[in-house]
Amino acid sequence: MPKESSPFINNTDNDKGNLYDGKNMALFEEEMDSNPMVSSLLNKLANYTNLTQGVKEHEEADDDEGPAKTKKPVKSPALGTLIGVYLPCLQNILGVILFLRLTWIVGTAGIMESLAIVVMTCSCTMLTAISMSAIATNGVVPAGGSYYMISRSLGPEFGGAVGLCFYLGTTFAGSMYILGTIEILLTYIVPSAAIFKAEKKEDEAEALLNNMRVYGTCCLTLMSLVVFVGVKYVNKLALVFLACVILSILAIYAGVIKTAFEPPDFPFFVCQIICLLGNRTLQNHNFDQCLKTMEVDNVTVTTKLWSLFCDSPDLNATCNEYFTLNNVTVIQGIPGLTSGVIRVLGYHNVQDVQDIPKLYTSQDIYMPYVANDITTFFTLLVGIYFPSVTGIMAGSNRSGDLRDAQKSIPIGTIMAIATTTFIYISSVILFGACIEGVVLRDKFGDSVKGNLVIGILAWPSPWVIVIGSFFSCCGAGLQSLTGAPRLLQAIARDGIVPFLQVFGHGKANGEPTWALLLTGGICEIGILIASLDAVAPILSMFFLMCYLFVNLACALQTLLRTPNWRPRFKFYHWALSFLGASLCLSLMFISSWYYALVAMLIAGCIYKYIEYRGAEKEWGDGINGLSLNAARYALIRLEEAPPHTKNWRPQMLLLLNLDSDHAVKHPRLLSFCTQLKAGKGLTIVGSVLEGTYMTKEAEVKKAEQSSMTTERTKGFCHVVASSNLRDGFSHLIQTAGLGGMKHNTVLMAWPGTWKQSNDPVSWKNFIETVRETTAAHQALLVAKNVDSFPTNTDRLGQGTIDVWWVVHDGGLLMLLPFLLRQHKVWRKCKMRIFTVANMDDNSIQMKKDLQMFLYHLRLDAEVEVVEMHDSDISAFTYEKTLVMEQRSQMLKQMQLSRTEREREPVVSLSLSLSLLFSLALYRSHYLPLLQAQLIHDRNTASHAALNDKADAGPDRVHMTWTKDKFLTERNRNRAEANMGVRDIFNMKPNQSNVRRMHTAVKLNEVVVNKSQGAHLVLLNMPGPPKNRGGDENYMEFLEVLLEGLNRVLLVRGGGREVITIYS
Which segments constitute the Amino acid permease/ SLC12A domain (predicted)? Predict the structure, then answer.
């Protein structure tokens, strides 16, 4: 999708190479590429256009194709308020419902209820127009109308959902207009053109529907071809269609005025006289005189009406009982404005098809009575009428063609709604005052010889209304088939719905060919329904949903008071917008609650799809502003104090290491974090890049993106550039989070290569991180062998999560397995809890107490108490401790600072050779007593480290040595090395270290024996020593403790209770 053009900052694609060489503004010359001069900015603004290619430009492209193609200059928009907004809105609002259904609605619902329907619907559109005017005048609105306004105000998710609903509404509106066209054609113009003819009266409805389907499909095909060939023909005919609408309305008012001054006194055959049998209206198709019998040459003969109710024309024939008992009367269909008929039609007067069995006998249903073809009630009438007030977006859809859109759209739209509201209200009153109620309830004009009811009121001829309404419906259908594909094309080109992208393409000039094809297919669905009364509520839902979100967009922007919300239209208020939104929602459920639910379900599915799969767009929409305000409000209310124990959950700070390509070294750690949270709580992914932010800015942003997309983790990424890793991780632990939304748990991976590393920084950083989390009262989780942990797509089978509860840490060890089992990866795993009992503990009572404790915690787990018997320290433990301390002492002697190696390279080489000799002597002396492989591995690593240091030394010599100085330094270092080796051979292990090693060895034996096959082992993590001199020994203790286990999670509590037995 092409980017929206902008004349503002950082839009320098067309200005590259235009360097500033003046003297007056030399102070700013280095920033001219990104921050242009005000003079050039104003020049761009004067020539700025952000308007999409419209129909006019498309047709000019068609005309330009040829061998002598010349590029025509694009004309500036020149349409004013009247031509550009008022008349298009008038044409789209007035249409098929006014001519075909308004009289029936007035006759069925009565004048008062009809006025209520008109006032409700017109109030809804007026309030929506006010909100739309505010949005439309808040900056430039390109072609796209309501979709553009909603998507840029409420975001791509709401914009796509409502845009597609508006598209569906426009498409079904095309179906409704085509059905109206065919109904006028087959019912009032050429009834003989019907293909399907009913032989029986009960088959008439089905025959009409089949005719509507056949002719509607043909009409849709013809209109689609017209739109495909060239929209310029539709534009040229628009004024003709508008003239038909205006002339038809003027003819209605002229007819009403004529009835006031000259009450009609027409004979029966002029269709103004209605024939009633009792109180039932008769269909005036097959008889000329409303008489049972008449005198001809002093002889009483039966009429055609007699033969419709009797089995023979004889006077003694058997007739219908109701026909026999009731007289035939004649009333005037249009008594006139001064007749007082309005008093009779003031309130509800319904004649439903469901009432026919109660009023008529089983045989009466086949008699030529006029009755409604559907069951009517107030809410249904609202749904049928509402499409007659849609079309208010016609002006905003043409915003690209307006001379001054911010002035024309509000004035033209509101004036058009006011005009149509006056027309509808006056029509309801005038119809009720001029036309008899039984005629108004005659939907298809059967009582007036099949004429259009509103047509018999018009002056000078009913054909003015018939022809005018026919062309009006044709024009509205063409406009719908023209606008709907372009709306779909605009949505597709925005790229927010991936599967619609194919509909963004079309002909070479941009005509939406594929979108037109889809529109025709959806429109055919409405035509196959074949009933105008059934299609109208469907499109009402989609239009009401669109208007609902226009009002919400305006209200949201007003309440948020975003700095960019500065509409030129000032006559709006958030309360009016909320009132309009509430009215739209109410009308949706009033019209049809099940259609409303279906429309909302469709919009919801589209919203979630765009949210899950759609392209990410940042349009500065109001939803982001609402989220920011809600987040600010929540953070302010959130107390700085720790949350209550019942609300505690791990808020994770995930410390990740990145490789040279900024890829995550342990992506399974992200997966484990997701599984541990089960989609809840806070996640901050933290990483550190060595260097300064000025030099690492691009790398920091790249690292942030790669960190979060590796495992699709939902959370926040925080990458810090620091001079060293230790300070960077310290900054993350201290500063990550905001206000009350700070992390309470740190998750990191075990430094598995700390032994093989030549540099002790890795394990020193790890121990310092442990100390800092303890000082910050934060929990710490350390995952060992994290690369073997399951991914989010794995499903672990039957197995166990083993918890080794050695010391109480606030209950975190109990809570973590429960949280893990909420995720589908660990759902089938069972929980086992092991605790350690000493010799003086009652293991049986401990097990009972632990089971009761778990019962109160509502945790399902197996409990086992492991007894640790006091035993003498083995020789293996003693020698293991000795080797650990001797290795530590040797490494300390071999570690010289980088400064010393640069200053004294030869001294370093001499010392390294001496230590290598001592190391060989040490290995030959102690090898029979200790485990050969362990000593070999450790000393091989040390040997390699020494070789590296020895090789690196001479490369960095920058000094000149005399022979005397060299001999003196060599003798001194040899003496120091020999003394150090003698100290190593004579040293004895520290008793405290021996006891710690004994604990690690014995506990490791028990854990390996019980939990070697477990899917995950959770174990209390002992704290680092207070004396920093024993840090390396601490790492050895942990290594021995975890030896032989696959997946291990070391857990260190944050110093507070995190689980409770209370509700």
Answer: 85-257, 370-653
C-alpha distance across the termini of the chain, in Å? 54
DSSP 661-675: TS-BS-HHHHHHHHH
Beta bridge partners of 472: none
CATH 2.30.30.140 corresponds to the domain 81-263+370-591:
no
Backbone angles phi, psi at 403, to 5 degrees: -70, -45
- Tell me which H or E stretch contains 437: helix 437-440
The HSE-up count of residue 644 (CA atoms within 13 Å, CB side) is 5
Nearest-10 crossing angle of helices 102-136, 145-154: 50
Which neighbouring-strand residues pair with 688? 720
Distance of alpha carbon 489 from alpha carbon 493, whole angstroms: 6
pLDDT greater than 70 at residue 26: no
Q: Are 1031 and 766 in contact (CB under 8 A)?
A: no
Going by C-alpha positions, the residue among 177, 658, 637, 671 that lies closest to residue 387 is 177
> Could you tell me if 33 and 11 are in contact, meaning their C-beta atoms sit under 8 angstroms apart?
no
Domain boundaries, the chain: 81-263+370-591, 273-366, 594-641, 644-780, 795-911+991-1062
Q: What is the pTM of this model?
A: 0.71
Per-residue pLDDT of 340-367, as tens digits, reads 777 666 655 544 443 443 444 556 667 8
CA distance 69 to 57: 15
Q: Is the peptide bond before 485 cis (omega within 30 degrees of 0)?
A: no
| Interatomic CA distance for residues 763 and 761, integer angstroms | 6
Residue 12's CB is within 10 A of a number of other CB atoms, namely: 14
pLDDT of 545 > 60? The answer is: yes
The per-residue b/e assignment along 209-240, b for 16 or more CB within 10 angstroms, e otherwise, is: bebbbbbbbebbeebbebbbeebeebeebbee
- How far is the C-alpha of 231 from the C-alpha of 511, rounded, in Å? 9
644-780 domain in CATH 3.40.50.620? yes
Angstrom distance (rounded) from CA 851 to CA 862: 8
For 114, the token pair is 């009809």
| Torsion angle (degrees, nearest 10) of CA 923, 925, 926, 931 | 60
**In this structure, which amino acid lies at residue 328?**
V
Residue 2 has pLDDT above 70, yes or no: no
| Alpha-helical segments (H) within 316-377 | 321-325, 356-359
| The token pair that represents 839 in the structure block | 């010799």
Distances (CA, A) of 149 to 139, 253, 524, 600, 927: 10, 38, 29, 20, 81
Question: pLDDT, tens digit, for every residue of 373-404?
Answer: 777 888 899 999 999 999 898 877 777 677 88
- What percent of the chain is helix, strand and coil (3-state, nearest 5)? 60, 10, 30
Position 650 scores a pLDDT of: 87
Helices (H), 79-155: 81, 87-93, 96-100, 102-136, 145-154
One-letter identity of residue 279: N
Helix count and strand count (H, E) for the chain: 37, 15
Partners of 690 in the β-ladder: 722
Joined tokens for residue 193: 């053109």
In whole angstroms, give the CA distance from residue 78 to residue 60.
17
Residue with tokens 């977006």: 393
List, for residues 672-698, the tens digit of each pLDDT value: 998 887 657 788 888 888 888 777 777
Phi, psi for 789 (deg, rounded to 5): -70, 155
Q: CB–CB of 240/471 below 8 Å?
A: yes
* Main-chain phi, psi angles of 215, to 5 degrees: -70, -35
Contacts of 495 (CB under 8 A, 6+ apart): 1, 501, 614, 615, 617
Which tens digit of pLDDT belongs to each residue from 505-539? Answer: 877 767 788 999 999 999 999 999 999 999 999 99
Q: Which residue in 468, 488, 241, 78 sits closest to 233, CA to CA? A: 241
The sign of the CA dihedral 161, 166, 171, 173 is positive
What's the one-letter identity of residue 320?
Answer: N
Task: Encode pLDDT of 314-345 as tens digits.
Answer: 888 888 888 888 899 988 888 888 777 776 66
